[in-house]
Predict the structure.
Amino acid sequence: MKLFQLKLLLALIVLPALLAAQSQQETDLEEFIADFEGSLGFSGAVLVAGPEGVIYEDGLGLANRTWGIPNSGSTRFLIASLTKPMTAALVLKLMDSGQISLDDTLDDLLPEYPADYSARVTVSQLLKHTSGIPNFSRIPGWFDGQYLNSIPPADFAAVVAELPLEFEPGTDRIYSNSNYLLLGLIIQSITGQPYADFLEDSIFKPADMNDSGLVGRNTEVIPSLAANYIGEGSGYRKGGYVNYEHFIASGSVYSTVGDLYKWTQALLGGEILSEAALSTMLDPDDSIAWDVSRIQLSENLNSIVIVGDGELEGYEGMIMMIPDTELTVVLLNNTGFGYDGLLNLSRRIFGYLRNSR
Protein backbone atom coordinates (compact mmCIF):
# COMPACT_ATOMS: atom_id res chain seq x y z
CA MET A 1 0.00 0.00 0.00
CA LYS A 2 1.43 3.36 -0.95
CA LEU A 3 1.04 7.02 -1.78
CA PHE A 4 4.01 8.36 -3.73
CA GLN A 5 3.30 12.07 -3.74
CA LEU A 6 6.49 13.21 -5.47
CA LYS A 7 6.13 10.51 -8.10
CA LEU A 8 2.53 11.55 -8.70
CA LEU A 9 3.41 15.23 -8.99
CA LEU A 10 6.07 14.47 -11.59
CA ALA A 11 3.67 12.24 -13.49
CA LEU A 12 0.92 14.85 -13.54
CA ILE A 13 3.23 17.56 -14.84
CA VAL A 14 3.11 15.85 -18.24
CA LEU A 15 -0.64 15.20 -18.11
CA PRO A 16 -1.66 18.09 -20.41
CA ALA A 17 0.64 16.82 -23.18
CA LEU A 18 -0.68 13.31 -22.81
CA LEU A 19 -4.26 14.55 -22.90
CA ALA A 20 -3.65 16.48 -26.07
CA ALA A 21 -1.96 13.48 -27.69
CA GLN A 22 -4.96 11.16 -27.36
CA SER A 23 -6.60 10.06 -30.61
CA GLN A 24 -9.52 12.28 -31.61
CA GLN A 25 -11.08 9.41 -33.54
CA GLU A 26 -12.28 7.43 -30.50
CA THR A 27 -16.08 7.58 -30.40
CA ASP A 28 -17.10 4.71 -28.14
CA LEU A 29 -15.98 4.87 -24.51
CA GLU A 30 -17.08 1.29 -23.85
CA GLU A 31 -14.99 0.01 -26.76
CA PHE A 32 -12.10 2.23 -25.71
CA ILE A 33 -12.05 0.84 -22.15
CA ALA A 34 -12.73 -2.76 -23.24
CA ASP A 35 -9.40 -2.68 -25.05
CA PHE A 36 -7.62 -2.30 -21.69
CA GLU A 37 -8.12 -6.02 -21.09
CA GLY A 38 -6.89 -7.20 -24.47
CA SER A 39 -4.02 -4.80 -25.07
CA LEU A 40 -2.90 -4.13 -21.50
CA GLY A 41 -4.10 -7.17 -19.55
CA PHE A 42 -6.21 -5.18 -17.07
CA SER A 43 -8.51 -7.22 -14.84
CA GLY A 44 -10.93 -5.49 -12.53
CA ALA A 45 -13.66 -2.87 -12.67
CA VAL A 46 -13.81 0.65 -14.11
CA LEU A 47 -16.13 3.56 -13.44
CA VAL A 48 -16.06 6.86 -15.31
CA ALA A 49 -18.24 9.81 -14.34
CA GLY A 50 -18.72 13.33 -15.63
CA PRO A 51 -21.01 16.29 -14.92
CA GLU A 52 -23.99 14.17 -15.94
CA GLY A 53 -23.08 11.36 -13.51
CA VAL A 54 -21.84 7.85 -14.26
CA ILE A 55 -21.17 7.32 -17.97
CA TYR A 56 -19.38 3.96 -17.75
CA GLU A 57 -19.38 1.23 -15.11
CA ASP A 58 -18.33 -2.34 -15.89
CA GLY A 59 -15.84 -5.11 -15.23
CA LEU A 60 -12.99 -6.52 -17.29
CA GLY A 61 -11.18 -9.83 -16.91
CA LEU A 62 -11.87 -12.46 -14.28
CA ALA A 63 -12.91 -12.19 -10.65
CA ASN A 64 -12.13 -15.88 -10.13
CA ARG A 65 -9.67 -17.64 -12.41
CA THR A 66 -10.38 -21.10 -11.05
CA TRP A 67 -14.02 -20.95 -12.07
CA GLY A 68 -13.77 -18.42 -14.90
CA ILE A 69 -16.11 -15.95 -13.19
CA PRO A 70 -15.91 -12.52 -14.84
CA ASN A 71 -15.58 -9.19 -13.08
CA SER A 72 -18.54 -6.83 -13.29
CA GLY A 73 -19.37 -3.34 -12.16
CA SER A 74 -20.80 -4.79 -8.95
CA THR A 75 -17.78 -6.99 -8.10
CA ARG A 76 -16.28 -6.20 -4.71
CA PHE A 77 -12.55 -5.70 -4.19
CA LEU A 78 -10.32 -5.03 -1.20
CA ILE A 79 -9.36 -1.38 -1.62
CA ALA A 80 -6.19 -1.49 0.52
CA SER A 81 -4.90 2.01 1.32
CA LEU A 82 -7.92 3.69 -0.22
CA THR A 83 -9.21 2.94 3.29
CA LYS A 84 -6.95 5.66 4.68
CA PRO A 85 -8.88 8.67 3.32
CA MET A 86 -11.96 7.25 5.03
CA THR A 87 -10.11 6.94 8.33
CA ALA A 88 -8.77 10.47 7.90
CA ALA A 89 -12.30 11.73 7.27
CA LEU A 90 -13.48 10.05 10.48
CA VAL A 91 -10.73 11.81 12.42
CA LEU A 92 -11.58 15.17 10.83
CA LYS A 93 -15.24 14.54 11.63
CA LEU A 94 -14.26 14.21 15.30
CA MET A 95 -12.35 17.46 14.91
CA ASP A 96 -15.50 19.06 13.43
CA SER A 97 -17.44 18.06 16.54
CA GLY A 98 -14.74 19.42 18.86
CA GLN A 99 -13.85 16.01 20.28
CA ILE A 100 -10.22 16.14 19.20
CA SER A 101 -7.70 18.62 17.86
CA LEU A 102 -5.04 17.99 15.24
CA ASP A 103 -2.53 19.16 17.85
CA ASP A 104 -3.59 16.55 20.40
CA THR A 105 -0.89 14.01 21.14
CA LEU A 106 -0.92 10.26 21.52
CA ASP A 107 -0.40 10.89 25.20
CA ASP A 108 -3.60 12.98 25.28
CA LEU A 109 -5.77 10.50 23.37
CA LEU A 110 -4.20 7.08 23.96
CA PRO A 111 -2.56 7.34 27.38
CA GLU A 112 -2.32 3.54 27.51
CA TYR A 113 -0.06 3.47 24.42
CA PRO A 114 3.31 2.53 25.95
CA ALA A 115 5.77 4.52 23.83
CA ASP A 116 8.28 7.03 25.13
CA TYR A 117 7.49 9.38 22.23
CA SER A 118 3.73 9.59 22.93
CA ALA A 119 3.87 13.18 24.17
CA ARG A 120 5.69 14.26 20.97
CA VAL A 121 3.47 12.70 18.27
CA THR A 122 0.35 14.60 17.22
CA VAL A 123 -2.81 13.58 15.39
CA SER A 124 -1.73 15.77 12.48
CA GLN A 125 1.57 13.91 12.22
CA LEU A 126 -0.19 10.54 12.23
CA LEU A 127 -2.53 11.69 9.45
CA LYS A 128 0.32 13.02 7.29
CA HIS A 129 2.87 10.23 7.94
CA THR A 130 5.28 12.64 9.62
CA SER A 131 5.26 10.96 13.05
CA GLY A 132 8.44 8.94 12.50
CA ILE A 133 6.71 5.75 13.71
CA PRO A 134 7.93 2.86 11.52
CA ASN A 135 5.64 0.76 9.38
CA PHE A 136 4.61 -2.30 11.39
CA SER A 137 6.18 -4.54 8.75
CA ARG A 138 9.44 -3.57 10.49
CA ILE A 139 8.45 -5.63 13.53
CA PRO A 140 10.94 -8.50 14.01
CA GLY A 141 9.26 -11.71 12.93
CA TRP A 142 6.65 -9.97 10.77
CA PHE A 143 7.40 -12.22 7.81
CA ASP A 144 7.90 -15.38 9.89
CA GLY A 145 4.23 -16.09 10.50
CA GLN A 146 3.44 -15.21 14.12
CA TYR A 147 1.59 -12.03 13.11
CA LEU A 148 -0.73 -14.01 10.85
CA ASN A 149 -2.47 -15.08 14.05
CA SER A 150 -5.18 -13.10 15.81
CA ILE A 151 -3.76 -10.48 18.19
CA PRO A 152 -5.88 -7.92 20.08
CA PRO A 153 -5.31 -4.46 18.55
CA ALA A 154 -4.05 -3.00 21.83
CA ASP A 155 -1.51 -5.80 22.17
CA PHE A 156 -0.41 -5.33 18.58
CA ALA A 157 -0.05 -1.58 19.15
CA ALA A 158 2.14 -2.32 22.17
CA VAL A 159 4.49 -4.24 19.87
CA VAL A 160 4.56 -1.27 17.48
CA ALA A 161 5.41 0.99 20.44
CA GLU A 162 8.64 -0.92 20.96
CA LEU A 163 9.99 0.05 17.53
CA PRO A 164 12.38 3.02 17.58
CA LEU A 165 11.32 6.13 15.68
CA GLU A 166 12.65 6.57 12.16
CA PHE A 167 13.11 10.30 12.85
CA GLU A 168 12.04 12.96 15.31
CA PRO A 169 8.29 13.62 14.87
CA GLY A 170 7.52 16.38 12.40
CA THR A 171 10.96 16.50 10.79
CA ASP A 172 10.44 14.14 7.85
CA ARG A 173 7.84 12.00 6.10
CA ILE A 174 7.68 8.23 5.68
CA TYR A 175 4.64 6.18 4.75
CA SER A 176 3.61 3.94 7.64
CA ASN A 177 0.50 1.85 8.25
CA SER A 178 1.28 2.15 11.96
CA ASN A 179 0.03 5.76 11.88
CA TYR A 180 -3.43 4.65 10.79
CA LEU A 181 -3.48 1.69 13.16
CA LEU A 182 -3.14 4.23 15.97
CA LEU A 183 -5.72 6.57 14.43
CA GLY A 184 -8.16 3.66 14.38
CA LEU A 185 -7.56 3.08 18.09
CA ILE A 186 -8.03 6.79 18.76
CA ILE A 187 -11.35 6.75 16.89
CA GLN A 188 -12.55 3.81 18.99
CA SER A 189 -11.38 5.41 22.21
CA ILE A 190 -13.08 8.77 21.52
CA THR A 191 -16.36 7.40 20.14
CA GLY A 192 -16.72 4.31 22.31
CA GLN A 193 -17.67 2.44 19.13
CA PRO A 194 -15.84 -0.21 17.13
CA TYR A 195 -14.10 1.36 14.15
CA ALA A 196 -16.37 -0.58 11.77
CA ASP A 197 -19.53 0.83 13.37
CA PHE A 198 -18.34 4.45 13.30
CA LEU A 199 -17.27 4.00 9.66
CA GLU A 200 -20.71 2.61 8.81
CA ASP A 201 -22.57 5.40 10.59
CA SER A 202 -20.37 8.27 9.41
CA ILE A 203 -19.51 7.35 5.80
CA PHE A 204 -21.19 4.23 4.43
CA LYS A 205 -24.75 5.18 5.41
CA PRO A 206 -24.60 8.90 4.51
CA ALA A 207 -23.01 8.04 1.14
CA ASP A 208 -25.43 5.14 0.50
CA MET A 209 -22.51 2.71 0.15
CA ASN A 210 -24.47 -0.53 0.45
CA ASP A 211 -21.81 -2.78 -1.12
CA SER A 212 -18.95 -1.80 1.19
CA GLY A 213 -17.72 -3.20 4.47
CA LEU A 214 -14.73 -4.20 6.54
CA VAL A 215 -12.77 -7.43 6.45
CA GLY A 216 -11.78 -8.82 9.83
CA ARG A 217 -10.20 -12.22 9.30
CA ASN A 218 -9.23 -13.76 5.98
CA THR A 219 -11.58 -16.65 6.77
CA GLU A 220 -14.62 -14.40 6.36
CA VAL A 221 -16.86 -15.10 3.35
CA ILE A 222 -17.72 -11.92 1.43
CA PRO A 223 -20.22 -12.42 -1.41
CA SER A 224 -19.12 -11.20 -4.87
CA LEU A 225 -15.54 -10.52 -3.70
CA ALA A 226 -12.94 -10.90 -6.45
CA ALA A 227 -10.07 -13.25 -5.67
CA ASN A 228 -6.64 -11.62 -5.58
CA TYR A 229 -3.84 -12.66 -7.95
CA ILE A 230 -0.37 -11.47 -8.82
CA GLY A 231 0.97 -11.60 -12.37
CA GLU A 232 3.91 -13.95 -12.69
CA GLY A 233 5.52 -14.55 -16.07
CA SER A 234 2.75 -15.30 -18.55
CA GLY A 235 0.33 -16.39 -15.82
CA TYR A 236 -0.84 -15.63 -12.31
CA ARG A 237 -0.39 -16.89 -8.77
CA LYS A 238 -2.76 -16.44 -5.86
CA GLY A 239 -2.05 -13.41 -3.71
CA GLY A 240 -0.59 -14.11 -0.29
CA TYR A 241 -2.43 -14.32 3.02
CA VAL A 242 -3.02 -11.04 4.83
CA ASN A 243 -4.16 -10.68 8.43
CA TYR A 244 -6.59 -7.82 7.90
CA GLU A 245 -7.07 -7.40 11.64
CA HIS A 246 -3.82 -5.40 11.62
CA PHE A 247 -5.04 -3.22 8.73
CA ILE A 248 -8.46 -2.32 10.17
CA ALA A 249 -8.09 1.45 9.77
CA SER A 250 -5.39 1.43 7.11
CA GLY A 251 -6.38 -1.14 4.48
CA SER A 252 -9.25 -3.48 5.29
CA VAL A 253 -12.26 -1.95 3.53
CA TYR A 254 -13.85 -3.76 0.60
CA SER A 255 -15.98 -1.89 -1.91
CA THR A 256 -17.12 -1.52 -5.51
CA VAL A 257 -16.34 1.14 -8.10
CA GLY A 258 -19.90 2.43 -7.73
CA ASP A 259 -19.66 2.78 -3.96
CA LEU A 260 -16.30 4.52 -4.20
CA TYR A 261 -17.79 7.01 -6.63
CA LYS A 262 -20.61 7.64 -4.13
CA TRP A 263 -17.94 8.19 -1.46
CA THR A 264 -16.15 10.84 -3.56
CA GLN A 265 -19.41 12.64 -4.29
CA ALA A 266 -20.46 12.64 -0.64
CA LEU A 267 -17.03 13.86 0.43
CA LEU A 268 -16.69 16.64 -2.15
CA GLY A 269 -20.36 17.52 -1.76
CA GLY A 270 -19.97 18.35 1.93
CA GLU A 271 -22.09 15.47 3.22
CA ILE A 272 -19.28 14.02 5.37
CA LEU A 273 -17.20 16.99 6.56
CA SER A 274 -17.57 20.69 7.14
CA GLU A 275 -16.12 23.03 4.53
CA ALA A 276 -13.22 23.86 6.85
CA ALA A 277 -12.37 20.21 7.53
CA LEU A 278 -12.62 19.33 3.83
CA SER A 279 -10.28 22.22 3.00
CA THR A 280 -7.82 20.89 5.57
CA MET A 281 -7.94 17.42 4.03
CA LEU A 282 -7.55 18.65 0.43
CA ASP A 283 -5.04 21.45 0.96
CA PRO A 284 -2.78 21.23 -2.13
CA ASP A 285 0.21 22.33 -0.08
CA ASP A 286 -0.29 19.91 2.81
CA SER A 287 -2.99 17.36 1.99
CA ILE A 288 -4.17 14.51 4.21
CA ALA A 289 -4.57 10.93 2.89
CA TRP A 290 -4.95 12.08 -0.73
CA ASP A 291 -2.37 13.31 -3.22
CA VAL A 292 -3.59 16.76 -4.24
CA SER A 293 -1.82 18.65 -7.03
CA ARG A 294 -2.33 21.81 -9.04
CA ILE A 295 -1.95 21.30 -12.79
CA GLN A 296 -2.54 23.36 -15.90
CA LEU A 297 -5.16 21.51 -17.95
CA SER A 298 -5.41 24.28 -20.50
CA GLU A 299 -4.47 27.91 -20.95
CA ASN A 300 -7.53 29.00 -19.01
CA LEU A 301 -7.96 26.15 -16.53
CA ASN A 302 -5.58 25.74 -13.60
CA SER A 303 -7.11 22.72 -11.87
CA ILE A 304 -6.80 20.62 -8.78
CA VAL A 305 -6.30 16.88 -9.27
CA ILE A 306 -7.10 14.58 -6.34
CA VAL A 307 -5.69 11.06 -6.39
CA GLY A 308 -5.80 8.14 -3.97
CA ASP A 309 -4.38 4.66 -4.42
CA GLY A 310 -3.98 1.40 -2.59
CA GLU A 311 -2.19 -1.89 -3.08
CA LEU A 312 -2.12 -5.12 -1.08
CA GLU A 313 -1.29 -8.63 -2.36
CA GLY A 314 -2.79 -8.23 -5.82
CA TYR A 315 -5.68 -5.94 -4.86
CA GLU A 316 -5.11 -2.45 -6.18
CA GLY A 317 -7.23 0.62 -6.62
CA MET A 318 -7.05 4.21 -7.76
CA ILE A 319 -9.42 7.15 -7.63
CA MET A 320 -8.64 10.25 -9.69
CA MET A 321 -10.84 13.34 -9.56
CA ILE A 322 -10.68 16.72 -11.28
CA PRO A 323 -13.40 18.69 -9.44
CA ASP A 324 -13.28 21.67 -11.85
CA THR A 325 -14.38 19.43 -14.72
CA GLU A 326 -16.51 17.12 -12.55
CA LEU A 327 -14.62 14.16 -14.00
CA THR A 328 -13.89 11.08 -11.88
CA VAL A 329 -12.23 7.77 -12.71
CA VAL A 330 -12.33 4.81 -10.30
CA LEU A 331 -10.23 1.70 -11.00
CA LEU A 332 -10.18 -1.50 -8.95
CA ASN A 333 -7.86 -4.36 -9.95
CA ASN A 334 -7.27 -7.92 -8.71
CA THR A 335 -4.07 -8.94 -10.51
CA GLY A 336 -1.37 -6.60 -9.21
CA PHE A 337 -1.53 -4.25 -12.20
CA GLY A 338 0.75 -1.73 -10.51
CA TYR A 339 0.56 1.93 -9.53
CA ASP A 340 2.08 3.10 -12.81
CA GLY A 341 -0.37 0.97 -14.76
CA LEU A 342 -3.42 2.39 -12.97
CA LEU A 343 -2.10 5.95 -13.32
CA ASN A 344 -1.58 5.36 -17.04
CA LEU A 345 -5.15 4.03 -17.48
CA SER A 346 -6.61 6.99 -15.58
CA ARG A 347 -4.72 9.43 -17.78
CA ARG A 348 -5.82 7.61 -20.93
CA ILE A 349 -9.46 7.84 -19.87
CA PHE A 350 -9.22 11.56 -19.08
CA GLY A 351 -7.56 12.09 -22.44
CA TYR A 352 -10.35 10.24 -24.21
CA LEU A 353 -13.02 12.25 -22.40
CA ARG A 354 -11.36 15.54 -23.22
CA ASN A 355 -10.98 14.75 -26.92
CA SER A 356 -14.45 13.28 -27.35
CA ARG A 357 -16.23 16.42 -26.15
